[in-house]
Amino acid sequence: xPKSERRKQVEAMVLYPLDWLExxxxxxxxxxxxxxxxxxxxxNWMQTLGxxxxxxxIVQALTGVILAMYYKPTPHDAYSSIQNITxxxxxxxxxxxxxxxxxxxxxxxxxxxxxxxxxxxxxxxPRELNxxxxxxxxxxGMMEGFTGYLLPWDQTAYWATVVGINxxxxxxxxxxxxxxFLRGGQEIGGDTLTRFYSLHMLVIPGAIIALxxxxxxxxxRLGVTSPPWSKEAAGEEPAEEEPxxxxxxxxxxxxxxxxxxxxxxxPGGRD
Length: 271
Ligand code: HEM
Known about the structure:
Blueprint: H1 5-25, H2 27-36, H3 49-70, H4 78-87, H5 92-119, H6 128-150, H7 155-169, H8 175-183, H9 190-222
Helix pairs in contact: 3-5, 4-5, 5-6, 6-7, 6-9, 7-8
The structure holds protoporphyrin IX containing FE.
Protoporphyrin IX containing FE binds near residues 113, 127, 137 and 224.
């Protein structure tokens, strides 16, 4: 059916900014590549655990930003500011509850995702580096939990941190230095609280975001592993490749105004 003038106008209006961005950055092509990239035909629900973990992390980041608007990291104000969030700030109880319970959800999902990767053998060549990056994310995730636990500055928070820091202090060679660094002095006090706050809301999330970016880059670069029972699994004869029929111009930037003929794939070319 021929397109109406109105529809053509609307399409041009939508495509103009996208083409503008694509010509200058290649970002639109990048997003299209990400969305339409090939994954094994028999991927499994368990392979959604990585995305579930990512969702949990994003929830933590968003609720954390809101909490940081009301939280006061001083021994005098910390506990009362948390009470204020829970009892007086609109929906504060919900945001705090989501952040508190979400922390456990995030850690549990990370372990489930790691278990899936292990059971599928997805840590093997060529994905060893992504496993190592995953381990770093796991360590950072647990440090995030440890530093966050002190912030309410109540009895549980204080004594749990005493135990945690003393445990770290028993590590060989680095232990005493680590304990001193975490305390920010000889005693657990105001300096420890501000230190934990800075680690919890700046340093560790920054490191986790950088590591997740690297992790996902490698997932896209290396592709997702097939389940071990799959015909496409490593060691099996490769399945016959279907001819790829991408819409022309889908992943390749095309100058604005060039007709469809300029976008035709080269004869014999795959894309
Ligand atoms: C914030 C934490 C994490 C996030 C957001 C995350 C995200 C993801 C996503 C979205 C995928 C692709 C889909 C999937 O397989 O589920 C993936 C794959 C992978 N992840 Fe993670 N991950 C995290 C932590 C970890 C940890 C702790 C490990 C292991 C120590 C790990 C190792 C891997 C490996 C080796 C792959 C490739 C699997 C394959 O190709 O099938 N990840 N991750």
